[in-house]
Amino acid sequence: MIRDFNTAVAWDVRDVETIRRRFQLIQALTSSGNIPRANELASAYETKANRIIEGQYTMPHTIDDPEPLEVVTAWDLLTNIGMSRIVALVIGIATARMTHMAEGSGTSFPNGGNTSLDSEVGRMPLVTNGFATAAGTVMRFGATFLQTFPSHVVAESGVVDAASFGTFLNRTLYRVDKRINHTENLDATSLTLAIYCTSV
């Protein structure tokens, strides 16, 4: 069974660079082969988001651990073409990996046949503004988005293999009561995706 867990976080513009550097560290650790430490940091970020939502995060916030403006989460699905890409990578008939994360404002209900976001606002490269890492049966992705993106409601997101168009691994729709309102130049968002693969 495969499930994906997503977080969307709004940050004050003064704090988003701290998050971007944290995501870059995860990517650097992955590239250098220190996968356990990379996954530890990525997992800790996800755990913190969950604990904030549940009102259980009691650590004091600091410059290196800033307080988010808003945190939302969602479980959703992989696309059929995303699953096909995983299969193609396993058997060696594809080499293109997931390289970008996209966010959008579309609200149509997600289904396995989705090939793109409903209404994409923009996407960011994982190598410079995010990370892609894995440990055991869990794949993790994350990206920080620019405060200069036009104001919009962050209603959907996905991981994709190109700077434009491309194959989407997943499409996530956040519930109506769990959507971040991005205001241009006042805040910035970060998104993460964790894909859990378990035997059944």
Q: How are the elements arranged and paired?
A:
Elements: E1 2-12, H1 16-31, H2 35-53, E2 70-78, H3 80-91, E3 100-104, E4 120-125, H4 126-129, E5 130-135, E6 138-144, E7 152-154, E8 156-160, E9 170-173, E10 180-182, E11 187-197
Helix pairs in contact: 1-2
The largest sheet, given as strand count, sense and whether it forms a barrel, is: 9 strands, antiparallel
Rg, Å, rounded: 16 Å
Beta fraction: 35-45%
- Strand arrangement within the widest β-sheet reads 4-3-8-9-2-1-11-6-5
Summing up helix and strand content along with how strands pair, one would put the structural category as alpha+beta
| Helical content band | 25-40%
Number of helices: 4
What is the 3D shape? globular
User: Which segments are poorly predicted (pLDDT under 50) over 5 or more consecutive residues?
Assistant: none
The ordered H/E elements are EHHEHEEHEEEEEEE
Return the domain count: 1
Distance N terminus to C terminus? Answer: 6 Å
Tell me the quaternary state: single chain
Give the tags:
200 residues, 35% strand, 4 helices, alpha+beta, 26% helix
Task: Give a brief description.
The protein is 26% helix and 35% strand. The protein has 4 helices and 11 strands.
Please characterize this protein's 3D structure:
The protein is 26% helix and 35% strand. The protein has one domain. The protein is built from four helices and eleven strands. The N and C termini lie close together (6 Å). It has 200 residues and is of the alpha+beta class. α1 packs antiparallel against α2 (35-53). It has a nine-stranded antiparallel β-sheet with strand order 4-3-8-9-2-1-11-6-5. Strands 7-10 form a two-stranded antiparallel sheet. The mean pLDDT is 91. β5 (130-135) and β6 (138-144) form a beta hairpin. The relative contact order is 0.26. The radius of gyration is 16 Å and the shape is globular.
